[in-house]
C-alpha cells in the first residue's frame, strides 16, 4: 500500500540563469514517467532522499505563484538528522550543492521525517537502508530486494 520514490532530480522551479549552467536533458519528466505506469505525484506515499544535493532533491518542491510547496502532497519525505544538519550548515565545498529552496520547505510543510542512523534499517519489506559517508555526509543508500 506504499509507493516509494527514490530521489526526484533537479525539478523545474529554478530560474533561467540556473538552467544556463545545469540543463535538463531531453523532454522526459517525472510526471511522464509516473503516468507511463499509471501513477501521478499524488500517488507517491514516500519520497526517500538519498541525500539533499539539488540534483537529487530539487523535484521535492515546486513553485506555485510565489510559494514553494511540496511537489508530493500525500508523501512523507525521508532523510536523517545528521545529513539534514550537514545540508543546512554545509562546508564551503558543498554549499553550492545544497539549495535552501529545495530543502527548507520540506521541513516547514511538516512532511519530513528522520530515520535513525544505525547499521541498516528495514524501511519496507523489500528495502533496507544503509548509511554511508563519502560523496556527502550521512547519505542513505537503499538496498532493494527484487525477485528474491
Describe this structure in words.
The chain contains five helices and nine strands. With 148 residues, it is α/β, with parallel strands linked by helices. The strands form three sheets. It has a four-stranded parallel β-sheet. The protein has a three-stranded antiparallel β-sheet with strand order 7-8-9, with no helix packed on it. Strand 3 and strand 4 form a beta hairpin.
Write the layout of secondary structure elements.
Elements: E1 4-6, H1 16-21, H2 30-36, E2 46-48, H3 54-57, E3 61-64, E4 67-70, E5 76-79, H4 81-88, H5 100-109, E6 112-114, E7 120-124, E8 127-132, E9 139-144
Parallel strand pairs: 1-2, 2-5, 5-6
Antiparallel strand pairs: 3-4, 7-8, 8-9
Low-confidence stretches: none
What would you call the shape? Answer: globular
Individual helix count: 5
The proportion of residues in beta strands is 25-35%
Order of helices and strands: EHHEHEEEHHEEEE
On the 0 to 100 scale, the average pLDDT is 93
Largest sheet: 4 strands, parallel
- Order of adjacent strands in the largest pleated sheet: 1-2-5-6
**By helix and strand content, what is the structural category?**
alpha/beta
What separation lies between the terminal Cα atoms? 20 Å
Number of strands: 9
Give me the Rg, rounded.
Answer: 15 Å
- Can you give the helix content as a percent range? 10-25%
Amino acid at each position: 500500500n506504499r509507493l516509494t520514490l527514490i530521489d526526484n532530480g533537479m525539478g523545474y522551479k529554478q530560474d533561467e540563469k540556473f538552467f544556463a549552467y545545469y540543463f535538463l536533458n531531453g523532454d522526459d519528466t517525472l510526471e511522464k514517467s509516473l503516468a507511463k505506469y499509471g501513477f501521478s505525484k499524488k500517488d507517491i506515499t514516500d519520497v526517500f532522499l538519498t541525500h539533499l544535493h539539488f540534483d537529487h532533491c530539487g523535484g521535492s518542491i515546486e513553485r506555485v505563484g510565489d510559494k514553494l510547496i511540496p511537489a508530493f502532497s500525500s508523501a512523507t519525505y525521508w532523510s536523517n538528522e545528521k545529513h539534514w544538519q550537514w545540508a543546512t550548515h554545509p562546508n564551503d565545498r558543498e554549499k553550492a550543492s545544497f539549495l535552501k529552496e529545495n530543502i527548507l520547505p520540506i521541513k516547514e510543510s511538516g512532511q519530513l521525517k528522520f530515520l535513525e542512523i544505525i547499521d541498516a534499517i528495514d524501511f519496507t519489506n523489500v528495502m533496507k537502508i544503509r548509511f554511508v559517508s563519502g560523496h556527502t555526509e550521512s547519505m542513505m543508500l537503499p538496498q532493494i530486494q527484487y525477485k528474491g
